[in-house]
């Protein structure tokens, strides 16, 4: 009952052009049926994400470990709440990040869990920069 | 099933069969001469009611499966078309959907009856555990069935519930992938759920056979909890129990029919009339009512894994009940303390169910934690402790003695019912006061409300005109065909008028012989064309918010009625939240934005829209559409007409449903009366 060949094939890597995404904006693309949030973070959001005491987080992870160096303004996360799989809403909640409407989990501007029942940070999908304005997810 | 039968059929053909397969003897000893305790009350008829409901669900389900398409792109539409186009499809669907709720309602009564009268105690442990297995299978079946219509709640319910398994350490993620058959809930998930939803009811039927077998070996428990000793303590199953069960089923059918014909969407969720969308989570995900207590337990535990364990152990703990409660006295009738704690436990379950439907914030979370502790404490502390410290009242020596000593015990339960009703009423007064001044849509007088409601033909025709001239510029009506305009219970057009109406539209058809798509005039069989070719185009043309299709809008929108209004709604048959909301939004535009509310660029202030910022500009203004019949051309009248029309598009067979409901009720009341008097006659010598 595992995924069949066509489902696996359809889950091949995709390329996303980032040039139309302005600062402070974010887009949602679908990969393997999952929504992927790509946020063009503002300076304020980056600073907020880096100012946090990492050890105080429920799932400690630095912001540096969650973005590609040299492309700090881009946050790419799978937009599925780690609690029970709802889709969090971007630019909501108390941490300038994501807010899940189902059970009230809140993520910061690095997609890290800050408050609520979710146990882990929003996962970062495998991706790399093909050029400065293009990423390949998968 | 109590030893070899000495039954001998008189017909030689039956004798021939009986010598080779003693099935008639089995039936005879199990359901005819089988001795059943004389003192059983009506709570014992729920076994028969449940068997009846299982048969009903399988029968309606098999027919529904003949018309259903288990594909992510087609499932929602196939269910909608089933309701509209299949002969009595609306009836089948209502019977199946409400049937699930009734099935669970009956099983809860059945389980609580077992709990109250100690039916799980020696020698009925295996019987009880088989019952818990049936209940677990029912939950799985009910959940997968709810996924099949592929609405928003189906999809997100499936996502939340399958994600529960991801809490299991190490293997959780692989189990979830296995359930999904992909990387997320999608078409493979729907396919396997359909397959399993068809399979599990037959497994249930198999375990029910074991359950009945175990019952007939151990014998039925009874309200006094003393085993039958002499023949005087029992009566033969037929006719005594069969006729009593028949009367019980007839009464239960009255409740069932109330839902089928008058309140089909009362127990459902309006969001499930919106097709599944993997990109949008509904603001408030709620499972079906029968899972709510367990959902509340899940949510009240802040750790994910612990929450899942807590939820499942709330059910599994029932399996250990025979050993947790070691009290010798079976029936709570003779256990003064156990009786009180039982009713507290019932209240805890109902309150947990209420909390499961509330948003997980503030006081609800704290209350949920307290009640979760109470739930488990009942099984793990109260019952083991009571077995040691409680001093039960003496039980009668035999069932016949118990019957002779019977007196007016009913007084107590009537008093409890009156107190409960009084509390509800007082609560309602407070709630009515609290809701004053809020932005709930005002109620309207709808011609289609109530048990004899009918659509106002004039309003339908005027509403169609408003839709055609105003709404259809942005909103589709894709489940409605032109032929529907000429159908009984609709706007009352003739077939020729519907055809003429259709021919005004240009419909895209093709490809033709040259392989090109072409446009032609509409035919009665065509559906209303949508203004945009796809959702993305609709979104792009409307500032990012796609105008929803209006076919089902009056059923897909609702607003919370709150406690205790939703209880009164059951009796008053109020179910017009959707029309009230739609009509209120159409009239709720205000130019002056109240202080403290900021409306983003490109949005408009609407008093009744959730969040108040609506992307739709004010659609109607006085005098915009001309009416031929002299009705006032005001916004209020337009809203009323177009909402009536949209109620009809959402439920074109409503008049047939209510008409048949009346006939069914007349029949059922007479039938139940006849059953009652037959039962009285049969039992005349036995009480």
Query: What is Rg of chain B?
Result: 29 Å
User: Residue ranges of chain A: pLDDT <50 for 5 or more in a row?
Assistant: none
Overall average pLDDT of chain B: 90
Second-tier CATH architecture of chain A? 3-layer Sandwich
The structural class of chain A is mainly beta
Report the sheet-strand fraction of chain B: under 5%
How are the strands of the largest sheet of chain A arranged? 5-6-7-8
| Biggest β-sheet strands, sense, barrel of chain B | 2 strands, antiparallel
Strand content of chain A: 25-35%
Shape annotation of chain B:
globular
CATH superfamily of chain A: Rieske [2Fe-2S] iron-sulphur domain
Give the tally of structural domains of chain A.
Answer: 1
Radius of gyration of chain A: 15 Å
Q: Give me the number of helical elements of chain A.
A: 2
Largest interface summary: A-B, 26 and 35 residues
Q: Which oligomeric state applies?
A: heterodimer
Q: What does this 3D model show about the protein?
A:
- The complex is a heterodimer of chains A (138) and B (687).
- Chain A has 2 helices and 10 strands.
- With 138 residues, chain A is mainly β.
- Chain A has a single domain (22-137), classed as Rieske [2Fe-2S] iron-sulphur domain (Rieske Iron-sulfur Protein, 3-layer Sandwich).
- In chain A, strands 5-6-7-8 form a 4-stranded antiparallel sheet, with no helix packed on it. In chain A, strands 1-10-9 form a 3-stranded antiparallel sheet, with no helix packed on it. In chain A, strands 2-3-4 form a 3-stranded antiparallel sheet, with no helix packed on it.
- In chain A, a hairpin with a 6-residue loop joins strand 6 and strand 7.
- Chain A is globular, with a radius of gyration of 15 Å.
- The relative contact order of chain A is 0.21.
- The mean pLDDT of chain A is 87.
- Chain B is mainly α and 687 residues long.
- Chain B is built from 25 helices and 6 strands.
- In chain B, the strands form 3 sheets. In chain B, strands 1-2 form a two-stranded antiparallel sheet. A two-stranded antiparallel sheet of chain B has the order 3-4. A two-stranded antiparallel sheet of chain B has the order 5-6.
- In chain B, strand 5 (604-605) and strand 6 form a beta hairpin.
- Chain B is globular and about 85 Å long.
- Chain B starts with 11 loop residues before the first helix and ends in a 5-residue tail after the last helix.
- The relative contact order of chain B is 0.09.
- The A-B interface holds A 1-4, 7, 11, 28, 30, 32-35, 80, 83-87, 100-104, 117-119 and B 156, 159-160, 162-164, 166, 177-186, 188, 192, 278-285, 299, 302-305, 307, 360-361.
């Amino acid at each position: 009952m595992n995924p069949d060949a066509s489902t696996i094939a359809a889950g091949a890597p995709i390329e996303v052009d980032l040039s139309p995404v302005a600062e402070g904006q974010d887009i949602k693309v679908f990969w393997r049926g999952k929504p992927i949030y790509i946020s063009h973070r503002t300076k304020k959001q980056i600073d907020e994400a880096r100012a946090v005491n990492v050890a105080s987080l429920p799932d400690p992870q630095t912001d540096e470990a969650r973005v590609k160096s040299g492309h700090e303004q881009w946050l790419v996360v799978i937009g599925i709440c780690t609690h029970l799989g709802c889709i969090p809403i971007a630019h909501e909640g108390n941490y300038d990040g994501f807010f899940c409407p189902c059970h009230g989990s809140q993520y910061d501007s690095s997609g890290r869990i800050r408050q609520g029942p979710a146990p882990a940070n929003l996962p970062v999908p495998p991706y790399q920069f093909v050029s400065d304005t293009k990423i390949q997810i998968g | 099933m109590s030893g070899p039968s000495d039954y001998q059929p008189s017909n030689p053909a039956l004798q021939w069969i009986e010598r080779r397969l003693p099935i008639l003897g089995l039936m005879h000893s199990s359901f005819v001469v089988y001795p059943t305790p004389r003192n059983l009350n009506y709570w014992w008829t729920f076994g028969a009611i449940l068997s009846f409901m299982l048969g009903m669900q399988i029968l309606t389900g098999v027919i529904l499966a003949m018309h259903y398409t288990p594909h992510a792109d087609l499932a929602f539409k196939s269910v909608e078309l089933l309701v509209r186009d299949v002969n009595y499809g609306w009836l089948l669907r209502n019977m199946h959907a409400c049937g699930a709720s009734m099935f669970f309602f009956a099983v809860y009564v059945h389980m609580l009856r077992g709990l109250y009268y100690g039916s799980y105690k020696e020698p009925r442990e295996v019987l009880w555990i088989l019952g818990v297995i049936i209940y677990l299978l029912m939950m799985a079946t009910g959940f997968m069935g709810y996924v099949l219509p592929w609405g928003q709640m189906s999809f997100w319910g499936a996502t939340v519930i399958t994600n529960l398994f991801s809490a299991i350490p190490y293997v959780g993620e692989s189990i979830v992938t296995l359930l999904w058959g992909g990387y997320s809930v999608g078409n493979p998930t729907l396919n396997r759920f359909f397959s399993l939803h068809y399979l599990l009811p037959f497994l249930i039927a198999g375990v029910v056979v074991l359950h009945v077998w175990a019952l007939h070996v151990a014998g039925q428990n009874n309200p006094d909890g003393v085993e039958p000793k002499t023949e005087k303590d029992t009566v033969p199953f037929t006719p005594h129990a069969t006729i009593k069960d028949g009367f019980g089923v007839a009464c239960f059918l009255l409740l069932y029919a109330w839902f089928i014909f008058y309140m089909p969407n009362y127990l459902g969720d309006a969001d499930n009339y919106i097709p599944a969308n993997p990109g949008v989570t509904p603001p408030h995900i709620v499972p079906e009512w029968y899972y709510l207590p367990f959902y509340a337990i899940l949510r009240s535990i802040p750790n994910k894994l612990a929450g899942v364990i807590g939820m499942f152990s709330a059910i599994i703990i029932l399996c250990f009940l025979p050993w947790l409660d070691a009290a010798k006295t079976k029936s709570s009738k003779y256990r003064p303390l156990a009786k009180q704690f039982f009713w507290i436990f019932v209240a805890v379950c109902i309150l947990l169910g209420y909390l499961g439907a509330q948003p997980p914030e503030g006081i609800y979370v704290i209350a949920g934690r307290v009640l979760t502790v109470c739930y488990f404490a009942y099984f793990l502390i109260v019952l083991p402790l009571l077995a040691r410290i409680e001093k039960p009242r003496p039980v009668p020596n035999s069932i016949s003695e118990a019957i002779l000593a019977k007196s007016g015990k009913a007084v107590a339960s009537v008093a409890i019912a009156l107190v409960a009703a009084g509390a509800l009423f007082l609560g309602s007064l407070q709630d009515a006061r609290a809701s004053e001044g809020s932005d709930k849509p005002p109620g309207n007088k709808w011609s289609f409300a109530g048990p004899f409601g009918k659509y106002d033909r004039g309003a339908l025709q005027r509403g169609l005109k408003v839709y055609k001239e105003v709404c259809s510029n942005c909103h589709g009506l894709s489940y409605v065909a032109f032929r529907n305009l000429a159908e009984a219970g609709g706007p009352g057009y003739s077939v020729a008028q519907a055809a003429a109406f259709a021919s005004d539209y240009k419909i895209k058809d093709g490809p033709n012989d040259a392989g090109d798509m072409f446009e032609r005039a509409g035919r009665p069989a065509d559906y209303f064309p949508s203004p945009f070719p796809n959702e993305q185009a609709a979104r792009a043309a409307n500032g990012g918010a796609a105008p929803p299709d209006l076919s089902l809008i009056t059923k897909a929108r609702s607003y919370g009625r709150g406690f205790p209004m939703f209880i009164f709604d059951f009796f008053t048959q109020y179910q017009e939240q959707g029309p009230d909301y739609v009509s209120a939004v159409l009239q709720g535009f205000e130019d002056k934005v109240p202080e403290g509310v900021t409306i983003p660029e490109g949005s408009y202030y609407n008093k009744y829209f959730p969040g108040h910022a609506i992307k739709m500009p004010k659609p109607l203004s006085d005098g915009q559409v001309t009416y031929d019949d002299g009705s006032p051309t005001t916004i209020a009248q337009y809203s009323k007409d177009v909402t009536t029309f949209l109620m009809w598009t959402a439920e074109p067979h409503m008049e047939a449903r209510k008409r048949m409901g009346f006939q069914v009720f007349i029949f059922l009341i007479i039938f139940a009366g006849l059953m009652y008097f037959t039962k009285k006659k049969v039992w005349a010598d036995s009480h």
